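pasting input
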Amino acid sequence: KAGVTQTPRYLIKTRGQQVTLSCSPISGHRSVSWYQQTPGQGLQFLFEYFSETQRNKGNFPGRFSGRQFSNSRSEMNVSTLELGDSALYLCASSLAWEGPYEQYFGPGTRLTVT
Amino acid sequence: AQSVTQLGSHVSVSEGALVLLRCNYSSSVPPYLFWYVQYPNQGLQLLLKYTTGATLVKGINGFEAEFKKSETSFHLTKPSAHMSDAAEYFCAASGGGADGLTFGKGTHLIIQP
């Protein structure tokens, strides 16, 4: 089975711009979660989608949003980029949103905001 | 709310020595617990997980972890370190719902030749 794929792998944007990141989960996985990884804050949960519905959201401003499509692929969008948004954004997929299902992570998208 | 604490941001061991990475969780209900490894410029790879049942969990690459409810701990061990084990290790907890994983700050494992 192919793993979780994320595109693009690297991205450079200017402060004030917006960006869209894409994630394709493992085939058959219906839950997709997004995380932000920075040296200072570590790994932080952004949001989780299951069956095109956002089930939960972490403590991030409204500039961070996402969606999931009927084929379980997910996108996250960050509007009005700030320098502090520079991070590795990781997507993870899982069979379901309830229960002890492990999450499988993609390689991440490295976003640099200048 | 859950929290995960990893003791030691950096751990250095000699090749062939025991690896011990410490993780403590804080939760009113024992959560599901995981250990992930991250190599440079890569995503996270699951090493092992604890859900219910046997408290000693074996994972990939010779790693294992023991869930101790009385100590709220889930330490990761490997009897003999290998150079390829050098990486960042993350302990994580989940309540089993859509609350995502709560991660520790990570421990950078250094293997000395």
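fyi Chain B has a mean pLDDT of 92.
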